[in-house]
Design a protein that fits this description.
Number of strands: 0
Largest sheet: none
Distance between the termini: 43 Å
Structural class: mainly alpha
Mean pLDDT: 86
Strand content: under 5%
Shape: elongated
Order of helices and strands: HHHHHHHHHHHH
Oligomer: single chain
Low-confidence stretches: none
Radius of gyration: 23 Å
Amino acid sequence: MLTLPEKVLFALLAALSLSYTYLGFRQIVAVVRRGQPEYYSRTNRAFARFREAIIQTLTQVTVFRGRPIVGFFHSFIFYGFSFYLLVNLVDIAEGYFPRHWFSWSAGPLVGNWFRAGADIFGFLVLIGVIYFLWRRFIRNDVQLERLNESVLIHPNVRAGGIRRDSFIVAAFIFFHVGFRLFGAGSLLAAEGHVDGWQPVASTIARCLGFDPNRMIGWHVGWWTSLGLILAFLPYFVRSKHIHLFVAPIRLGLGPRDRTGEKVGTGALDPINFEDETIEQFGVAKLEQFRFTQILDPYACI
């Protein structure tokens, strides 16, 4: 458990982080709302929309279909980091309340599977991150670097903005999960035992050596892991990885007719050059795009 000054400090940092994160989300909403209304209802067939968005998100079917190897390693990060949303909440609670309040985590079935999930998923996330770092920065996969010369690209992208963003996000995920595992291993080392449900953390504990003084490692792991979350949240809403949040929303708001079937509206509207009343051909301002056309880049679909 944290000391009182640590609890106060973390609460203040969390409030600051969430405030800047909220401002980022509010900016995205303001930008998207500038778009023109769609020609269809975004809320008809609500259950079918919600179901399909959830299924496509959880199964990652589009990633596996187009790139099975990439999808395989991507699933390590997606499912592992999804589980870590729960892990982070539990870690915060354990930092604020005495450990004996969480006696369920020491033995009962739920606690065993939770610890195993945090340990194994954490290791798989690290494997996935290493693969994608290798793919982008060592292998230099041409699919990640190819730019269509006929498309207007933001200067920051041509200057390497995507590579820089990918490195920042990969580093955050690697160190966030890595220090969480280090903290779990340090806790086992401080308590003087290993845990069969945490093979990775137990290996770390053996490497560190069993000593009550290893408890400092738990503090380092806790603060670094969750501190990175607080530092990353404001950046997350301003990076290309916001698609993790927006893509399911875009899938749910996609165009459907009255029967629930999908209809394509991604292309710009055809231009009638014979209509002499038209004052503006095509799109000259952001406001002339439709709602989902502005949402698409955030969703990365």
